[in-house]
Fold this sequence. Notes:
This protein has helices at residues 10-13, 24-34, 52-55, 63-70, 89-108, 139-151, 167-173, 215-233, 259-276, 291-306; strands spanning 3-7, 43-46, 77-80, 83-85, 114-117, 156-160, 179-186, 204-209, 237-242, 281-285. By secondary structure, the chain is an alpha/beta fold. It has a single domain, classed as Histone deacetylase domain (Arginase, Chain A), CATH 3.40.800.20. Strand 9, helix 9 (259-276) and strand 10 form a beta-alpha-beta unit.
Amino acid sequence: xxxxxxxxxxxxxxxxxxxxxxxxxxxxxxxxxxxxxxxxxxxxxxxxxxxxxxxxxxxxxxxxxxxxxxxxxxxxxxxxxxxxxxxxxxxxxxxxxxxxxxxxxxxxxxxxxxxxxxxxxxxxxxxxxxxxxxxxxxxxxxxxxxxxxxxxxxxxxxxxxxxxxxxxxxxxxxxxxxxxxxxxxxxxxxxxxxxxxxxxxxxxxxxxxxxxxxxxxxxxxxxxxxxxxxxxxxxxxxxxxxxxxxxxxxxxxxxxxxxxxxxxxxxxxxxxxxxxxxxxxxxxxxxxxxxxxxxxxxxxxxxxxxx
Length: 307
């Protein structure tokens, strides 16, 4: 099989409370569309729970233990104005990070060519020292660290097309020339990072998009900056932070992307993966808050992974 999907029931049990945009219905919408007949050939696997030691490669000094201890016995608590935990949030966060770890093991071993992690909470805003922006652990950074520590891969790339800049991933990557981070995102917008001038040690490629930008600007940012940089980097593994909140129907931003844009960029990333790393690509769900647009965009993305 080409593609494996990792998921876990705890993703739907992470309760952010009434009115919160990062709600359980998001993962239900994605899994519902992936249960369709057109995806019947997908391999599916339950996400394992990440170990504290695996998380500590990215989030040091007892961060994971403190975060897990912050989960309430009942109700909800906020760890920042946007980021909520409920009794099941710790399990969901461990399984979200564990999905990426399991996907790395499956892809690097050659069991499958690529993987999609249908999980929540998302991760790309989580800084090494604190969660934020709906994110508890930085799932893609944990995956990158695992690929290096356990599989001996050296050059790991993340391509992030969420509408919000992946500040946490950039923070972890920006001083290591053997890590690559490329991001398209609406700018200025939360979290306020992601200017084109933020280049790390020559390994950070930000293509900020102005409010109202559509397919042409998005594809130009990829074709003119991020994809050439990725090709020159020559990755051993490519991770995708697959946020679908750049869609024109999303309520949290003002880009005008469509499902075809996500299919297109996924195909382009796969081309580069075929040239440099035996097709190894692992994608994980980040944002996307209009349920219909999210489901359609995720379907287009996974279609492009299995094509």
